[in-house]
Amino acid sequence: MTVITPKLTLERKLLGECGVIIALDEVGRGALAGPVAVGAAMMDAAGVRRRVPDGLRDSKLVTEKRRPDVAARAAAWVQASAVGWASAEEVDQVGIMRALGLAASRAVSAIAAQGASMDEALVLLDGNHDYVSRVHSSPLRVRPVIKADRDCASVSAASVIAKVARDLYMAELHESHPAYQWNRNKGYASPEHREAIRRNGLSPFHRASWAIADAPTLF
Question: What is the pTM of this model?
Answer without folding.
Answer: 0.93
